[in-house]
TrEMBL record:
Gene Ontology cellular-component terms listed: endomembrane system
Pathway the protein contributes to: Lipid metabolism; Phospholipid metabolism; CDP-diacylglycerol biosynthesis; CDP-diacylglycerol from sn-glycerol 3-phosphate: step 2/3
Annotated source species: Salix viminalis (Common osier)
Protein name, UniProt field: 1-acylglycerol-3-phosphate O-acyltransferase
Catalytic activity: a 1-acyl-sn-glycero-3-phosphate + an acyl-CoA = a 1,2-diacyl-sn-glycero-3-phosphate + CoA
Annotated signal peptide: none
GO molecular function: 1-acylglycerol-3-phosphate O-acyltransferase activity
Length: 379
């Protein structure tokens, strides 16, 4: 019943998302067929602009609908350049809405249309959302290195002449954080003699190493992003956003110049592992203090108005278009028309249900986290 209630609450927002998304997908497909063979850069600029419209709808959901508060911690050097350069972004997994969190961060620095993701292959087949990301240049992985190695290398090379600043986000932990997976990571670390994590998973470094080696000639920086939620606040989730559940999220951002990273594959892999050990210690302090220490902080409780304006305009356009369509074809005056409208509503409900089910974390069997606190190692 709770899931059905969430779907019902999300229906109005979902209908605007569906109508806008279908139009965006049509424009993207037309550009792919007509413009891509002639000019890749022109295609990227146009598709980036229309994808931005769809992503603004999602950031509106987080910012204005759910009322998420955002706090950003970074040094002045990082704040001066972030959003103005191409970068490889390396966040930790926190919740089932991590991708939305990174789009939210990108919007804060006017980099939303260039916010590209490395995503699991199955998400490519999600209607509207997955298709839009595929057209916009997201990299989809099988999570099998034998299959993914060549795909990653070709995808990274495709970005060499990307016409605008972009962030390529790669979640190097390889899977979302859950108590069961953290326990497995702790047991693996003990068996190998590695530092035992308490707040993060052990990174899978092959994809990150490949990204650094193939992009270091044209991407000047790596942004090490640590995401945390204070005690007493719910962990953000897609279902929570749809149900207007407010929360607070902190982003700690540290910029590393790409030319300062090690040259060898082994050195890059160890650098990545060291950063996650440091993340783990930083998150321990965050749990104790409720904030990140010693950094410039921006308290962005008032979200950017761009997404609000975009959704208001989209709602007006979609509503007027739907009314004109209904009147033009007299959809309320015959059973065929009523059936078509019922199908549209059903499609909206099924799509929202699919998104909720797809993003939710798996059921936990071994351990449970309480109130968002770190799971302790079970002996």
């Amino acid at each position: 019943m709770e899931r059905l209630a969430t779907v019902a609450v999300s229906m109005p927002c979902g209908m605007i998302f569906c109508l806008t998304g279908i139009l965006v997908n049509i424009i993207q497909a037309a550009c792919f067929l007509i413009i891509w063979p002639v000019s890749k850069n022109t295609y990227r600029r146009i598709v980036g602009a229309v994808t931005d419209i769809l992503l603004l709808h999602l950031t509106f959901l987080v910012d204005w609908w759910a009322g998420l508060e955002v706090r950003i911690h970074a040094d002045l050097e990082t704040l001066e350049v972030i959003g103005k350069e191409k970068a490889l972004v390396m966040p930790n997994h926190t919740c089932d809405a991590d991708v939305l969190m990174m789009w939210l961060l990108a919007e804060r620095f006017n980099c939303l249309r260039g916010a590209l993701m490395v995503m699991k292959k199955s998400s490519k087949y999600l209607p509207i959302y997955g298709w839009a990301n595929w057209f916009n240049g997201a990299v989809f992985l099988d999570r099998n290195w034998a299959k993914d190695e060549g795909k990653l290398k070709s995808s990274f090379q495709e970005l060499k002449d990307f016409p605008i600043s972009f962030w390529l986000t790669i979640f190097v932990e390889g899977t979302r954080m859950t108590p069961d997976k953290l326990l497995a990571a702790q047991e693996f670390a003990i068996s190998k003699g590695f530092p035992v994590p308490r707040n993060v998973l052990i990174p899978r470094t092959k994809g990150f190493v490949s990204a650094v080696q193939y992009m270091r000639s044209f991407v000047p920086a790596v942004y090490d992003v640590t995401v945390a939620v204070p005690k007493g606040h719910p962990i953000p989730s897609v279902k929570g956003f749809l149900r207007k559940q407010p929360s607070v999220v902190h982003f700690h951002i540290k910029r590393y110049a790409m030319n300062e990273l090690p040259q060898s594959d082994e050195g890059i892999a160890q650098w990545c592992k060291d950063r996650f050990v440091a993340k783990d210690a930083m998150l321990d302090k965050f749990r104790a203090n409720g904030t990140f220490d010693g950094k410039e902080s921006r308290d962005l409780r008032i979200p950017p108005k761009k997404s609000l304006i975009a959704v208001i305009l989209l709602t007006c356009i979609d509503s007027i278009g739907a009314i004109l369509l209904i009147r033009r074809f007299s959809l309320l005056s015959n059973w065929k028309g009523i059936s078509s409208l019922a199908f549209a509503v059903a499609f909206d409900a099924i799509l929202m249900y699919t998104f909720i089910e797809y993003t939710k974390l798996p059921e936990q069997g071994k351990v449970q986290a309480r109130n968002g606190q770190v799971v302790k190692l079970i002996h």
